[in-house]
Task: structure prediction
Amino acid sequence: MVKAVRFYETGGPEVLKVENVEVAAPGPGEARVRHSFIALNFIDTYFRAGRYALDLPNGLGSDAVGVVEAVGPDVTDIKPGDRVGYLIGPQGAYSEVRVMPAAVLIPLPDGISDRTAATLMMKGMTAQYLFRQVYPLHGGETILYHAAAGGVGLIACQWARALGVTMIGTVSTDEKAALAKANGCTHTIVTSRENIVQRVKELTDGKGVKVVYDSVGKDTLMDSLDCLQPRGSLISNGTSSGSVIVDSQLLASKGSIWMTRPAMFHYIHPRPHMLDMARELFDHVLAGRIVSEPQQEFALEDAADAHRALEGRKTVGSTILVP
Ligand SMILES: NC(=O)c1ccc[n+]([C@@H]2O[C@H](COP(=O)([O-])OP(=O)(O)OC[C@H]3O[C@@H](n4cnc5c(N)ncnc54)[C@H](OP(=O)(O)O)[C@@H]3O)[C@@H](O)[C@H]2O)c1
Result:
C-alpha cells in the first residue's frame, strides 16, 4: 500500500483526502514510478474545484518526477532505474508510487536534480510552448506577461531574458516584483498600486505591446486587450482569477485582436516533439540560463494547505509536495 491523495467530491481544499491505496503491476505500455517530488500546479485547483471535469472519485495532479521501479512487457525505451518526469497523462501524481503510460515519461539528464526537475516539467514546458510555439519570440519584442513571479512566471522571466525579449511583468506585491526582476523581468507592474494599461503605455511610448500572455483571466482581460497594439495577439493561457467569455465583436473593436486559449495537450504531441521540447528546456537549465528551485515545500499529506497557499496568492515560483 502507498499513500495517495484522492477526492470524492469537488470543492475547496478540504475535499482532498490522504489514503492508502494498492498499486498494480505495470501492464503493457506502462511503467511504475516511485515519486521523489510532486509539483503543484494551478490547474490542480481547477480539477479539485470542479472547473475542469473529472470522474470521481479520482486522484489529482499530473506533474511529478521520480525513478522507474518496473515496466510492462513491451516497454523498451524506459527501464527500471531511469530517472523520469512527466506533465501529461491521467490524474494521480499526488501519490508515493503510481503506474503511468511509459509514452509520457521524459528521461531526466544527469546534470538536473530531481528537485529542479520538479519545477520544470509542467512549468518549464509551458514556458517553452508559449514562447516557442504559441507566439514564437525571436528576441527584440516587448511582451506583457501576467503573474510574472508565479511558477511558470519565474521560468518565463528567465527564458525571455535568454531570448533578448523585453518583458513587462505584472505582480501583486513589491516583493514579487523584486523576485521577477531578479529572474530577468525587465519592468514590473505592481497591480495593487499601479494601473496596468497606463504603465504599459508609458513603457512603450504609447504604442502598447504586440502580445500579451494572460494566465489570470477574468480580472485582467480588459486591461490585456487595452495594452495591445492593433492586430496584436492575446494568449489567454490560464484563468487563475476566473474564466473569460469574449464576444468576438470586442476583439474587433479593440483592434482586430487575435486571441487563442492554448492547451498544452495540443502542442506536446507526438512523443519525439515532446522530447525535443524538453531538450530545449533542459539545455537552458544545463547552460545556467534558467535556474529553478522550489520556493515552497509541503508534505504530500498537506496538499490541501499547498492549495490554500497557491489560491491565496501566497506562493512565489514553484511549489513541491514531498511524498
Ligand atoms: N494553458 C496551459 O497549457 C497552461 C499550462 C500551465 C499553466 N497554465 C496556467 O498558468 C497560470 C500559472 O500557473 P502556475 O501553476 O505557475 O501558478 P502561479 O502563477 O504560481 O499562481 C497563480 C498566480 O496568479 C496570480 N493571480 C492573479 N489573480 C489571482 C487570483 N484571483 N487568484 C489566484 N492567483 C491570482 C497570482 O500572482 P500575483 O499575486 O503576483 O498576481 C498567483 O501567484 C495558471 O493560470 C495556470 O492555469 C496554463
